[in-house]
């Protein structure tokens, strides 16, 4: 397992998670590749630290692994988020292919959701706080509004190509891997959902637990199956739109990086830090010390968060 010290020289604060069809940022210069075991196992893929020609660094991780080997229920999300946090990531932009549940959200449009409805089935490990160290995260606003605004300012990147960037939409995250039935698709529409995917949960929750500013950038690939007399979603349809979406994702990221770096330097994401400080509920006497040790990997200051002194171990 790597230590924070070992990675402290990397100095990368921006994490990018690529989803279906977005498996690398290999147009940028690779500085380093990291593939370490975390207390929650190995991440989906190596983390590639890249630098763009202007000197901006990002840490890229492929959600489904190299060659797309994990289905949405199998993704080791705890290891993914823990590994990014361990190397110093403070902000995550997570790209995801989604189905559109609204006529006006066309294939190849991008969407910044501000809400999630969780339709996963409880089979994905979805918290760092268990086994004798319990905390309850505030999840009313699953995405980071500062990050969303910063990305939205660059909607012209998409508009220039004839596509839209929609903000403040509701995403429903289903278990999969089968796509929805027509009844489910219509149910999600009746609930006010705008887009559907299989990967926002538990990723968004875990980022929140680790005090990371997290925004999903959804890339529409299809109209799911709610439209009468229209072809319902298939992997072929999703992938046929992903080439264009990937190119646009790279352009969008390139446009936002200077603002993002500036926002980090200006402390715009600082309010996330310490957000878990009052979320722990386990009594000091009852805490599982092994679990506390595990959490040192992601919170080097876990003891002060818990209000215990170093000689407590
Ligand atoms: C390949 S279609 C279904 C698949 O696509 C999305 O993946 P990701 O969010 O990683 O881009 C969706 O969530 C499903 O996992
Ligand atoms: N229609 C859909 N349902 C769930 N996940 C998706 N990812 C891309 N399209 C999707």
From TrEMBL:
E.C. numbers: 2.4.2.28
UniProt binding sites for phosphate? 20, 63-64, 96-97, 199
- One of the Pfam families matching this protein, by short name: PNP_UDP_1
Task: Report which superkingdom the organism of origin falls in.
Answer: Eukaryota
Q: Where is this site: Important for substrate specificity?
A: 180, 235
Its primary localisation, in coarse terms, equals cytoplasm
CDD domains in the record:
MTAP_SsMTAPII_like_MTIP
What biological-process GO terms show up in the record? L-methionine salvage from methylthioadenosine; purine ribonucleoside salvage
Keyword Protein biosynthesis carried by entry: no
Q: Which GO terms describe its cellular component?
A: cytosol; nucleus
Which keywords are on file for this protein?
A: Cytoplasm, Glycosyltransferase, Nucleus, Purine salvage, Transferase
**Which residue range or ranges hold the Nucleoside phosphorylase domain?**
13-257
Task: Please name the top-level EC class of this enzyme.
Answer: transferase
Residues reported in the UniProt entry to bind substrate: 198, 222-224
Q: Which reaction does it catalyse?
A: S-methyl-5'-thioadenosine + phosphate = 5-(methylsulfanyl)-alpha-D-ribose 1-phosphate + adenine
Q: Where does it reside?
A: Cytoplasm; Nucleus
**One MF term from GO for this chain?**
S-methyl-5-thioadenosine phosphorylase activity
The pathway where this protein functions is: Amino-acid biosynthesis; L-methionine biosynthesis via salvage pathway; S-methyl-5-thio-alpha-D-ribose 1-phosphate from S-methyl-5'-thioadenosine (phosphorylase route): step 1/1
> Sorted alphabetically, which HAMAP family does this protein's record hold?
MTAP
Could you say which protein family the record assigns here? Belongs to the PNP/MTAP phosphorylase family. MTAP subfamily.
Subunit structure of this chain's protein: Homotrimer.
Summarize the protein's role: Catalyzes the reversible phosphorylation of S-methyl-5'-thioadenosine (MTA) to adenine and 5-methylthioribose-1-phosphate. Involved in the breakdown of MTA, a major by-product of polyamine biosynthesis. Responsible for the first step in the methionine salvage pathway after MTA has been generated from S-adenosylmethionine. Has broad substrate specificity with 6-aminopurine nucleosides as preferred substrates.
Name it: S-methyl-5'-thioadenosine phosphorylase
Naturally occurring in which organism (per UniProt): Glomus cerebriforme
């Amino acid at each position: 397992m790597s230590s924070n010290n070992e990675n402290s020289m990397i100095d990368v604060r921006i994490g990018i998670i690529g989803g279906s069809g977005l498996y690398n940022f290999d147009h940028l210069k690779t500085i380093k590749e990291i593939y370490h075991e975390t207390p929650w196992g190995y991440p989906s893929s190596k983390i590639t630290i890249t630098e763009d020609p202007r000197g901006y660094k990002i840490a890229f991780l492929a959600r489904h692994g190299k060659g797309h080997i994990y289905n949405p229920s199998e993704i080791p999300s705890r290891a993914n988020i823990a590994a990014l946090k361990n190397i110093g990531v403070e902000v995550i932009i997570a790209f995801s292919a989604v189905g559109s549940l609204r006529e006006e959200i066309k294939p190849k449009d991008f969407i910044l959701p501000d809400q999630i409805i969780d339709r996963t089935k409880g089979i994905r490990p979805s918290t760092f706080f268990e086994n004798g160290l319990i905390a309850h995260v505030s999840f009313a606003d699953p995405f980071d509004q500062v990050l969303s605004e910063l990305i939205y300012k660059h909607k012209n990147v998409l508009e220039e190509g004839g596509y839209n960037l929609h903000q403040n939409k509701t995403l429903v995250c289903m278990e999969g891997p089968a796509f929805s039935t027509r009844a489910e698709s219509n149910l999600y529409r009746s609930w006010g959902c705008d887009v559907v995917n299989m990967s926002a949960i538990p990723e968004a929750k875990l980022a929140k637990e680790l005090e990371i500013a997290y925004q999903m950038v959804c890339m529409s690939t299809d109209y799911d199956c709610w439209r009468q007399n229209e072809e319902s979603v298939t992997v072929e349809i999703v992938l046929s739109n992903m080439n264009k979406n990937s190119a646009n994702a790279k352009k969008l990221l390139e446009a936002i990086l200077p603002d993002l770096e500036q926002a980090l330097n200006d402390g715009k994401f600082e309010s996330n830090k310490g957000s878990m400080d009052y979320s722990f509920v386990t009594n000091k006497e009852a805490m599982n010390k092994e679990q506390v040790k595990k959490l040192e990997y992601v919170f080097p200051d876990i003891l002060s968060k818990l209000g215990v002194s170093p000689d407590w171990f």
